[in-house]
Structures are given as structure tokens and as C-alpha cells.
Amino acid sequence: MFTSVINWFEDKRKFGGLIGAFLEEATRGSISTEKEREKRISVNTNRGLWARCDNRGNMLYVKFLKQNKSVCEECGYHLSMNSMERIELLIDRNTWIPMDEEMTAKDVLDFSDEDSYQSRVAVSQEKTGLTDAVQTGLGYLNGTLIGLGVMDFHFMGGSMGSVVGEKITRLIEYATDKSSPLVLICASGGARTQEGTLSLMQMAKISSVLQIHQVKKKLLYISILTYPTTGGVTASFGMLGDIIIAESKAYIAFAGKRVIE
């Protein structure tokens, strides 16, 4: 933590003039309305300056944590990353081509508990800027074209519903058609309860197209397991990789601790 504090003070010394520059810009009218100014301030505030290591509890300066790829500089623990951060980490600059960005979930069961399913989806969309719990697309990794799917635990716990299953299935089919390697980064609490059997069907659907990709076409599939990977994702494509890579100390299970208890 001491190192992070030093980094923070050094950063403030170097960039202390930014606040004044921001106020000067606002005075010139570049922020046209009070509403826009409040929105920008809100966005900057919500980013936060500090994060807590989930392993040791020490405080980490966010700017340097991101520069260290969200790995704690004191204990080496891998903190969570959102899907866009992982894409930027892996894919060569300006080569990312997203797929099926507009696909959204339908509440075919009219499911409701404390809140309706559609309300939960809307809240997660507003919170993350995503349409569902996975981003899929094509991009170059060190000059090699790959199909990449990245799950995002910040969207309803990375739960796998019909949209997640369909997006991953389409990605695999496209990668197979183009004879490209496939990489899937898992971060999920499992099948999405609000979709019932429809969510469970995605396990078989994804596994069947992976069988074509790996066995029939002899193409590479790499599965990367991050914190946490559980439930239906573990029981299907999470464990089907030709190569399976897990982040250090990642929580990987079929039935999680809370479910068992």
C-alpha cells in the first residue's frame, strides 16, 4: 500500500494543473450546459481513485493498477476486469470488430422476483454500457486473426442466457468458417435463472458447435478461466478448451459455495 500512496502523490504533483485546466475550459463555454457539466463530473467521480485488493485488503491506486493490468503489485492477485479492458489488453490496436452488439434478451417467461427480469437487464445495461453479459468479435492477436468472446461479470453476474449463448455460438461458427483460432474468456455465475430451461439449452448448443470447430475442422480453441467461473459455463465450454488457462487464484467451480450452503 505504501508504494501505491507514493505513486498517487507523485501523480497528483505531475498532473495537479488538470483541475485548473478543466475549470478554464468550462468557463470558456466548451461545456455548453449545466446538465452536461454535471454529467462529466459524475463520470469522473464514479471512476474512483482507489481499489481494494480482494486477497490482502490493501489499497491500490487505480491508475497504476490499470497500468499493471489489474494485478496487485504487492501480492500478485488478479483483480477483476471488465470485458472492454480485456479486449484492449489482448487485441492489437484498432483491429477489433465487434459482432451482434445489438442483440438483447427477451423476457419470454415474464419472470419476476423482487424486480422484473427486464428491469434487471435494463439496470445492467445502464451500469455497464453493454447489451448483455458477453462481447464477441474478431481481432488480431500479435498479427493473427482470432475469434474472441469475453464474458463480463459486471452484467448480471456474467450469467449465461439465450443472448450469451447465441452470440458465442455465432462467434464459433464464424471462426470455424474462416478457419480462425478461438479464444473465450469466462467470467460467470452460471446459467441465467430468469430464463429457466432456455438458459440451460445454451450449454448443449455451444458445446455442439465447438465439437465441429475442434474435432471436425481441427481448429484451436483456448479457454481462459477468470474469477469467477462457475455453473453452466464450467460445465460446458469453460472446460472444453484444447488449452485451458486459469488466472492465479481464480474461483472455479460447478456449484459455488453459497449454492452448496
From TrEMBL:
One of its GO terms (cellular component) is acetyl-CoA carboxylase complex. This is Acetyl-CoA carboxylase beta subunit. The gene is accD. One of its GO terms (biological process) is fatty acid biosynthetic process. Residues 49-261 form the CoA carboxyltransferase N-terminal domain. Acetyl-CoA carboxylase is a heterohexamer composed of biotin carboxyl carrier protein, biotin carboxylase and 2 subunits each of ACCase subunit alpha and ACCase plastid-coded subunit beta (accD). PROSITE patterns: COA_CT_NTER. The lineage of its organism: Eukaryota, Viridiplantae, Streptophyta, Embryophyta, Tracheophyta. Gene3D superfamilies: 2-enoyl-CoA Hydratase, Chain A, domain 1.
